[in-house]
Amino acid sequence: MDEQTLTKTYRELVRPLYGYVASRCGGDRSLAEDVTQEAWLRAVEAWGRKGMPDHPLAWLKTVARNLVFNYYRRVRPVSLDALPPGLEATTNEDGLDWGSPDHASLVSWGLARLRPAQARLLEAFHLEGLSVEEVARETGLSQRAVEGRLRRARQKLRKQLEKVVGPGGALT
Fold this sequence. Notes:
With 172 residues, this protein is mostly helical. The protein folds into two domains: 3-74, Rna Polymerase Sigma Factor, Chain: A (Orthogonal Bundle), CATH 1.10.1740; 80-165, Arc Repressor Mutant, subunit A (Orthogonal Bundle), CATH 1.10.10. Helix content is 67%, strand content 0%. The chain contains seven helices and no strands. The chain has helices at residues 3-22, 29-50, 56-74, 101-111, 116-127, 132-139, 143-165. The chain is globular and about 55 Å long. Mean pLDDT is 80; it is low at 80-95.
């Protein structure tokens, strides 16, 4: 792959890749930058050998997602009690906070402990904002199957998070 094509691709994709990574790093800018950089280093190496994939952003997101999950598999979660006082978060009907940067690292830690298919469904629906219909189309499942799997994945995630915040502990 020539340097000009790689530079053009980098300029087009670095911002969306960083945004994707940052939303999964709990406001840890240094971690987001490291993961983004590592994903690009792996891309340069792999694409130099095999050529650029048909969907380079999807390829980069997959690598970045695995890097973030690997990071959170190695670290101990931070209890919500250790977060700054006055934390205000919005939650969905399940009581899980999907938008607070202060909780993102805790949620990422929990996602890293789920089966990849479960984590992917939760990410697509809650982090990427895809509708049930869009997730169904992307996964080849029926909408009803997606709804059921999302419900079960949320339950499993809740169990993982309760290891940190305690049973029935407030996740907000």
